Amino acid sequence: MSAAPSIAAGTADSASAPTSAAPREPAANPIRKCIHIEGVTKRYIVGTEEVHALRGVDLTINANEFVAIMGASGSGKSTLMNVLGCLDRPTKGIYELEGKRVDSLSPGALARVRNEHIGFVFQSFELLPRATALGNVMLPLLYSRKHWLGARRMAKEALARVGLQDRMDHRPSQLSGGQRQRVAIARALVNQPSLLLADEPTGNLDSRTSEEIINLFKELHVQGQTIVVVTHEEDVASNAQRIVRLRDGLVFSDFITRDDPVHGEFLRMIMKQAVDAAASGPSTPELPAPALPAPSLPAAASAGVAP
Amino acid sequence: MIILRLLLQTVVLAFGQLWANRVRALLTALGIVIGVASTIGTIAATSGLKGFVLEQFATVGASRIWVFPRQPREQPNRFSRNQIRMKLSEVEGMLAACPSLKQLTPIKQFAAPVQFGDRSLSNVSVQGIRPAWHDIEQRFVIDGRQFLAVDDAERRNVCYVNDKAIEELALPASAAGSTILVEGRRFLIVGVVETKMVSPAFGGGEPRTEVFIPYGTADGMKPEPLFGLYVAATTRSPELFEDARAELKFYMRNQRGLSGDDPDTFRIEAIEQYIDQFKKIAAAITALAAGIVTISLLVGGIGIMNIMLASVSERTREIGLRKAVGAPPSVILMQFLVEAVVLCLVGALIGLAIGYALTLALAKIPGSPLKQAEVPGWAVLLAVGFSAGTGIVFGLFPAIKAARLDPIVALRHE
Fold first, then answer.
1. What is the pLDDT of residue B197?
2. Alpha-carbon Rg of chain B, whole angstroms?
3. Can you tell me the ipTM of this complex?
4. In chain A, what are the domain boundaries?
5. Is A148 an 8 Å CB contact of chain B?
């Protein structure tokens, strides 16, 4: 599956968006909220100081969206990811996952929500070193109440989906970085989660492998998977349908990727580099130059500040 | 269902974890291993000793009971020698008065010079007995005939000798029919009695030269020796020894007209009472062994806790991951608890194996009094149960620590 069409598919048609800043859905899917948070705040006590990591975030992500959450360190994106991933409870605010309130569940109940609805992909893969690829992928099913009779079959299917059907018996140490991340993605998919939540999924990979992984995400997205990627890399974000930027614990901007002013800047810079490189020598640029229609670039980033 | 499946998977996981760190696991479990092995060894040795001692008692007969005359230590000068010594009249009524007794014989024992041909022995044990003696002592005539009632009544000079006497006096191999001199009187040997090996604990050991004569004959030879007469009897069953003792005491006090605060002027001894005492001692030793297991398991348990804490700390990221993919705190708790228990049980099994080997070795020592040493089933259950308990108690704190880890913090842990 090539990359370009999926982005086009994700952003092509226009329909009335459910919320003001939210992007549109592919026409085939009825609009269904996957994630809905309202007025989410998170406060920590660090030493004697109170840190407001989130100061009232509203965000709706529909099913089958591919969203990038971006922000500098300290912007609250990790905290938001933890809240979205049900690893942490918001101090205040509403969180509905698949229409169900999950903002004040007990740790045990949250574990079950994570098990059934969320697939995590981490920057450093987090595979169990002594388990085989298959064993690693089966891990979530170990704790599942629904799927355990077919655990092995499901794990094999998930590995096949990421193209590792012939590496099932390999241990992580016998796999390349990209393959490890694929195993991790298979593990995230094995429970057929509502939401695939990736935290800097390419952070530990070289650019070529990163591309592979991003392409895999795009494929999964086309197959209907809802994906949220937390990243600080613009070229990763450029593959998402929509970019949500955080700053100081608030949603700073929320655009369809091609309308995102900051991303536009990035693209122009890439183009320029590519052109410069082509002019100066025969070497081809390393980074993919996304085939995007040149957006009508706004003059300043402030144009799209979220309410 | 889910609990069972999780438990099974957790056990498999725990074994995998231990196998991955097998040297460390083994060293950690060493406390448990040593504790269990030493306890099993001690209990087995105690059981062997008990078997040995009870066997010794059995050589005497568990239902044996004796009545001896006794100078009461409380009031040494109150009773005359004549009041104390046992009289035949007391013996004659005893069996009728004490229904718990099966049979009895008065025994009059003294030392006398014995001579055969040119061989003479100066201090030979001579016992005047009645025929019931054979059943009581379980010693029978192997050559010749038993004493007859008439031998007793007529105070005939007939006697039995034992093998040792034949040897010492250089009697002919078939001794019956020969005559020997006992205290200068001619005695016809009518039979040879078995020499019974009695445990050294009861004055046995090396067989001694023995001569037995009818009670009546002995009474004629020594009409009133000091404390010479005592009674050997058997109860109808070993458990009746307390009853027999009470009956005898009542009978004897009545016979002797003792009243109120008067001390007993006789002494009743039953084998069963020694057996009881010994059993109590053995039980105390066993309890001590159980105490050792408790202490050593405590020490072992601290090691287990230590290593489990280290394990939790090492595997923080793994715990974080497991939590992230949906392991609830209870399952993480169970995982670490099961691991601790499995560690302890593996230690207990190794300890049991060593304990068994030790027991076998003890029993195999030539001439060992612990030939019957064996590991009782309850000791195995005790060791395994206590070890599992140790795993639970000392694994709980690390497991709770693991279960309470915040997945976010755990995943960020280096």
1. 65
2. 34
3. 0.80
4. 3-14+64-85+105-287
5. yes
